[in-house]
Design goal:
Elements: E1 3-6, E2 9-12, H1 13-16, H2 29-42, E3 47-51, E4 61-65, H3 66-80, E5 88-90, H4 97-109, E6 113-115, E7 134-137, H5 139-147, H6 151-157, E8 162-165, H7 172-175, E9 184-191, E10 196-202, E11 213-214, E12 218-222, E13 227-232, E14 240-248, E15 254-259, E16 263-266, E17 269-272, H8 273-281, E18 291-298, E19 302-310, H9 316-326, E20 338-342, H10 355-363
Parallel strand pairs: 1-6, 5-6, 5-7, 7-8, 8-9, 19-20
Antiparallel strand pairs: 1-2, 3-4, 9-10, 10-11, 12-13, 13-14, 14-15, 16-17, 18-19
Helix pairs in contact: 2-4, 3-4
Length: 365
């Protein structure tokens, strides 16, 4: 019998489908949202309001249709081979697209699911002998699990069979960390407007892919500005033009070059910030540290390229060597002119860095 686990409470889906069911007990905020959504779903609600992540602007509400939510969930379940014999661990906010769709997959396929409050390292909430098989994490959570030098957390992670990683971009150096782990890891590409992911990149094991592979019902192309265009059942066969610059390969797979709104003009030269960030992530001087590329106004250059790094400042010699090493990955004009440091980044609920808000916090503007 499928059930929803909320703390010490195992609630059968059949009870949640009963409009007279009333839960009495204490729940965390995420568990409360999950209970409410599960009841609405099982009682036949046809529309759900979800908000965009807000990583590039103010979050906006979008109405999701039940039929398309079902189609999106079924596609993922079919591709990954997830069935009612599995067991889901839901450690994302149910307010986000990724968290909501994990819950819908469980409800649609009658899969037992436990909901916990999101945290940096969700493995801390599990026993070493847990029996969960399917989960989804944001890269920030994976970063905490894999760089925390906590082998117990890695052992718990290795008990899963299939894991989705979504919510932010991932460079190749970071992707290689998944090679020797036991579960099958899939990096997802999608957005709230497409009912979460429309493409998957397998990160380890048999069938590892270097690029995103669209789901069967999805067609991708690009416009004159090299922006990714998505079409298919999930879009109602209408084109959705993204803000992501893309390279599409003959086999239909694609790679993201960066966002159109993450291009700066410095001294008349256009610089893609994601390319700089990938190089920063490769530096031995910044191992285990988060960083991103940004800019500050400059009278001579217009926009001066900088790097914003989480944590304490590097020693002067390490910072100098880091800038020298960056020239192995980047053109001279793509190397940040200055490094700035901040205690914490401003993040969205799904773990994406809010670059502009973080910069405003750093510079007090």
């Amino acid at each position: 019998m499928p059930y929803l686990v909320l703390g010490n409470n195992n609630i059968p889906f059949s009870q949640l489908a009963d409009s007279d069911f009333l839960f009495e007990g204490d729940l965390s905020p995420n568990q409360g949202v999950a209970l409410h959504v599960a009841q609405q779903w099982l009682q036949g609600r046809q529309e759900f309001t979800i908000h965009t992540s807000g990583s590039t602007g103010t979050p906006k509400p979008i109405v999701w249709k039940r039929k398309l939510m079902e189609q999106s969930a079924q596609q993922t379940l079919s591709v990954l081979g997830v069935t009612s014999a599995d067991k889901i661990f839901l450690c994302l906010s149910v307010h986000t697209a990724g968290g909501l769709m994990m819950l819908v997959r469980a409800l649609l396929a009658n899969i037992p699911v436990e909901v916990v409050e999101p945290s940096g390292n969700p493995m801390e909430k599990l026993s070493l002998q847990h029996d969960y098989t399917f989960a989804s994490f944001v890269p920030l959570q994976m970063h905490h699990i894999l760089t925390g030098y906590d082998m117990v957390s890695v052992q718990k992670l290795n008990r899963f069979k299939k894991i989705l990683v979504g919510g932010a971009t991932m460079n190749n150096d970071w992707a290689r960390r998944f090679t020797d782990l036991d579960p099958e890891f899939y990096h997802t590409y999608g957005m709230t407007e497409t009912y979460t992911h429309i493409a998957l990149r397998k990160l380890n094991g048999v069938g590892t892919t270097p690029r995103y592979v669209p789901l069967k019902s999805v067609q991708v192309s690009k416009d004159r500005e090299e922006r990714l265009v998505i079409n298919g059942v999930i879009t109602g066969y209408a084109d959705i033009v993204t803000s992501d610059r893309v390279r599409i390969f003959p086999d239909g797979s694609f790679e993201i070059l960066g966002r159109m709104d993450n291009v700066i003009n410095s001294g008349g030269v256009k610089i893609q910030l994601e390319k700089v960030e990938s190089a920063l992530a490769s530096l031995k001087q910044l191992a285990g540290r988060d960083s991103f590329a940004w800019y500050v106004p400059d009278e001579e250059l217009g926009q001066k390229l900088i790097a914003i790094i989480k944590g304490n400042p590097l020693p002067a010699m390490d910072e100098y060597e880091a800038k020298v090493d960056l020239r192995s990955y980047l053109e001279r004009y793509e190397v940040p002119k200055q490094f700035f440091y901040i205690a914490d980044f401003v993040l969205t609920d799904s773990g994406k860095v809010q670059r502009q808000k973080t910069a405003q916090l750093l510079f007090g503007k």
